Amino acid sequence: MPSVIESIQNWMQSRSVPSSPSTGYSPSDALVQEIESIPLVKKLIDTNMIVIPFRPDVVDQASDTDNSAEFLKLPGGKALNITSRNENPNLWSHSLVRGPTLYGDKRIEYAIQAYDTKDQVLINIARFGQDVAGHPNVVHGGLQAAFFDDSFGTMFAVAAKGDFTGVTANLNINYRSPMYAPATVAFVLWVEKIEGRKVFLKAEARSIPTEADTEATTDGDSPQEFKSIGEKWIGKGSVLFGEATALFIKVSKEQLEQKK
Predict the structure, then answer these.
(1) Which residues form the Thioesterase domain (predicted)?
(2) What is the pairing mode between strands 121-128 and 108-116?
C-alpha cells in the first residue's frame, strides 16, 4: 500500500495541466443545464429574486432607475446592470475570483448570484472543479476564504445602495466539513448589523440538496424552525461546509482618492 506522501505525489502527477486563462471563459451549456436544473437553483432563478450575473456589466446610473430593481447602485454614479444575465468578462479580467486566475475550466466553473429584497439575503451558487484542491479532491480552504470574501463584497455593495463603498477589515472562517471537488455549493450571506462605519456580515457555505423537497423555504417561515439563516434558505438536509463572519469599514470616495 502506498504511503500518504506517495498517494499525494501520484495524484499530483495525474492532474491535467490547465490551459492558459482566458477572460472569455463561459461554462458549457451542459454544465449550466445541469446546475440550473437543481430544484433549489431553479427556484432561485424562477422566483422574484434579483439574479445578478457573476461578472455583471457596470453602467452609468440613469435618472429613471432610482427605484428600479433592474439596477444596483454603486458609488460614483455607477450601477450594476442586472437587466439581463449578460456578462462583461473584460471588466473583471483583473479580479482574482471572477477573472481568469480562478474562473475557468476545472477551477471555478460556474457561478451565479441571487438577492432576496425581502429578507435581504444574498445566495451565491458556485461549482468548484478538480484543480482548486488542497488535499486530494478537497476544495482548498484558501479558495473558500477568497470566495467568502468576494461574496461579502457583493453583499456589502448591495446593502450600501450606492451611498458608500468599503473594505474588508476582518474575515473569520470556521471550516465544518470537507468540501469534496467537484462541488456545487451555495453561499448564503446577510448583514448582521451596522454600527456607524462598521458593517458586520455573516455567511454559510452549504451543499445543495438535489431532491425536489429540500425542506428549504423562501416563503417567510418562522426562522425559529431552523438553526440558521443558511439552513432556512438551503434546507435542513444540507451539509454545512463552513461559517464566516466579516467586518467591513465604510470608506468615502474622498478617502479612496486620498489613498491613491
Answers:
(1) 137-207
(2) antiparallel
Diameter of the chain by CA atoms? 69
Q: Is 56 helix (H, G, I), strand (E, B) or coil?
A: coil
Cα 9 to Cα 2, 150, 246: the distances in Å are 10, 32, 36
Strand partners for 123: 114, 188
Q: Where are the domains of the chain?
A: 34-52+104-259
Q: Is 152 in contact with 205 (CB distance < 8 Å)? A: no
Element (H, E) at 247: strand 240-251
Calculate the CA 196 to chain-centre distance: 26
In angstroms, the CA 116 to CA 47 distance is 9
User: Tens of pLDDT along 102-155?
Assistant: 999 999 999 999 999 889 999 999 999 999 999 999 999 999 999 999 999 999
Nearest to 174 by CA among 228, 242, 227, 241: 242
CATH superfamily of 34-52+104-259: Hotdog Thioesterase (3.10.129.10)
